[in-house]
Amino acid sequence: MELLRKVIGNIRPAQESFIEADETISEINLLLKKNNIKAVCIAAGSYAKGTILKDDFDVDLFVRFDT
Question: Taking a C-beta distance cutoff of 8 angstroms, is the pair 24, 42 a contact?
Answer without folding.
Answer: no
